[in-house]
Specification:
It is a single chain. This protein is an alpha+beta fold. Helices cover 51% and strands 7% of the residues. It contains 19 helices and nine strands. β5 and β6 form a beta hairpin. α8 runs antiparallel to α14. It binds protoporphyrin IX containing FE (HEM). The site of protoporphyrin IX containing FE has 24 residues, from α14 and α19. Keywords: Endoplasmic reticulum, Heme, Iron, Membrane, Metal-binding, Microsome, Monooxygenase, Oxidoreductase, Transmembrane, Transmembrane helix. Cytochromes P450 are a group of heme-thiolate monooxygenases. They oxidize a variety of structurally unrelated compounds, including steroids, fatty acids, and xenobiotics.
Length: 514
């Protein structure tokens, strides 16, 4: 055959595929017009994705929130997928709580096993079963038993900060605090003792970071090649880096094997997340001698619970790592930074700590009555919420408050924009913990503040997260004060796609005595 024929045939094939791809990617681009919902005008294939990428998700969310100021809901297209933003707080409540049964699942992303078994990704009854099984891990009794792990990691962090304070050097809070949260996860999750501040070469730290850095690739694959979802594995391509995933899968398998031997030999058990997952494999958990009556009761309530599969267990071990690392370090580092910027609030918080704790090492019980600390944390999470956009997928046509939401539609809560809405939060960029006093709170819509989401699918790790943050914050502020310094860059500018300060969160630490 003549070469020019081959080239023409290939060209035609390419153009044909391009047309099919364009039609496929743009097939749903008229949905908001049909529903009579205001929306951005999409361009073929990309929808409004390019605009979102150019503006960055934070600014994009705020821009739309301002544009559709008078609308309860409005839409945009994330490549192929229509996304319905819900601006109205009553509607958010209805979706997250009242009609939860119709909005159980989240938007699907392309991920490989065992990541597709992580709680955050599971659907319907599978999600319900795993959530019921994992929930007791975060009960008071369990958190109390994990507390010494948190205490130990806090001591390491404070010792390091003390050295920095003495040297008079500026510190970048996000980096330091991330090392702390990695240590806490390794110990509370897996009873692995690491010191990330010293051992930067620890396999655990390196592999965990590699997994977390792969998020961009997952988004790209899911948005532009949605028809390939679930197909990558079949053609031998792993969207997530295979090495670190295997590392964690083997790590979990190995730990589970050892634990089973310990249990079978009647030796004493570990108090960590992995141990609880292991126990969930067994159906005789109600008679487990390692549980308090309350905890056993909590489990009994979840009747019909099936034991978790091995892949389920691997998935939960990995989500424990992914969900608990960056979120906690973001909140803790921004809170310390905002306190450095607002010395009056910092002094008030230190007075509360002095009052409730004195110089004692923070204990589990002390953490429950630090009300001003709760107010500071809530205010920091208002300004810098790690979960800045939350979504649910509608599983049956439903009309809420006069708006028809069709089956399959992804609805999204614009948390970042709601948290900075001047009509809800006057002078929104000002750090003002008083916004969370009982009196001020009672005057506001309860769904105006959503740092941990809402309803049955909210953050399962909230209590552990707050405990970690409060213990570290108390121990640091008991003996030192963060202050802004010549290295501090203000105002805070966020990275394009992450809740991370572009220029770092630089402060100096001074002695309380000064
Ligand atoms: C300050 C730290 C944290 C923040 C701000 C945070 C925030 C969130 C948010 C906003 C959601 C989505 C909720 C929704 O859709 O309504 C979520 C879900 C989740 N979080 Fe957290 N989180 C934090 C720490 C943690 C920790 C420490 C863990 C576990 C160790 C954890 C585990 C999870 C899991 C498993 C889900 C998915 C729950 C489900 O789908 O049922 N989070 N988190």
């Amino acid at each position: 055959m003549d070469l020019s024929w081959i080239i023409t045939a290939l060209l035609l094939l390419f153009v044909g595929l391009l047309i099919i791809y364009t039609i496929y990617m743009s097939a749903e681009h008229g949905v908001f017009r049909k529903l009579g919902i205001p929306a951005l005008t999409p361009i073929p294939v990309f929808g409004n994705f390019l605009r979102e990428m150019m503006t960055g998700p934070f600014m994009f969310q705020e821009e739309l929130y301002r544009t559709y100021k008078t609308d309860k809901v409005y839409g945009y297209y994330s490549c192929k997928t229509p996304i319905l933003f819900i601006r109205d707080l009553d509607m958010i409540r209805d979706i997250a709580v009242k009609h939860f049964g119709n909005f159980v699942n989240r938007r699907e992303f392309q991920i490989d096993e065992p990541l597709d078994h992580m709680l955050s990704m599971l659907k319907d009854d599978h999600w319900k079963n795993v959530r019921n099984t994992v929930s007791p891990t975060f009960s008071t009794g369990k958190l109390r038993r994990m507390f010494h792990h948190i205490s130990d990691s806090t001591r390491t962090l404070v010792e390091h900060l003390r050295e920095q304070k003495i040297s008079g050097k500026a510190v970048e809070l996000k980096h330091l605090v991330s090392c702390y949260t990695m240590d806490v996860i390794a110990s509370t999750g897996f009873s692995v003792q690491i010191n990330s501040l010293q051992e930067k070469k620890s396999d655990f730290v390196i592999k965990a970071k590699e997994i977390m850095d792969a998020a961009g690739r997952v988004i790209f694959a899911s948005f532009f090649l949605p028809f390939m979802n679930k197909q990558w594995g079949k053609i031998g391509i792993s969207i997530f880096p295979k090495g670190p995933l295997d590392f964690f899968s083997f790590f979990v398998d190995d730990a589970l094997k050892n634990r089973k031997e310990v249990t079978n030999n009647g030796l004493s058990k570990r108090n960590d997340f992995l141990q609880l997952l292991l126990e969930s494999e067994r159906e005789d958990i109600m008679d487990n001698d390692n549980m308090s009556k309350d905890e056993a009761q909590e489990l009994k309530i979840s009747t019909g619970r099936k034991p978790l599969s091995h892949t389920d267990i691997q998935g939960q071990a990995i989500i424990f790592l992914l969900a608990g690392y960056d979120t906690v370090s973001t909140v803790l580092s921004f809170t310390l930074f905002l306190l450095a910027q607002n010395p009056d609030c910092c002094s008030q918080l230190q007075r509360e700590i002095d009052d409730k704790l004195g110089k004692r090492i923070p204990s589990y019980d002390n953490m429950q009555d630090l009300t001003y600390m709760d107010m500071c944390l809530n205010e920091a999470m208002r300004l810098y919420p790690p979960g800045f956009q939350l979504d649910r997928v509608c599983n049956e046509d439903i009309v809420i408050d006069g708006v028809l939401i069709p089956k399959g539609m992804t609805v999204s809560f614009p948390v970042f924009a709601i948290h900075r809405d001047p009509e809800i939060w006057p002078d929104p960029m000002r750090f003002d913990p008083e916004r969370f006093s009982q009196a001020n709170k009672s005057e506001r819509h309860p769904y105006a503040h959503l740092p941990f989401g809402q309803g049955p699918r909210n953050c399962i790790g909230m209590r552990l997260a707050l405990l970690e943050i409060k213990v570290a914050l108390s121990a640091i502020l008991q003996e030192m004060t963060p202050i802004i310094c010549s290295e501090t860059v203000l105002p805070i500018r966020l990275k394009f796609f992450q809740m991370v300060a572009k220029d770092g969160l630089w402060v100096k630490l001074t002695d309380r005595a000064n």
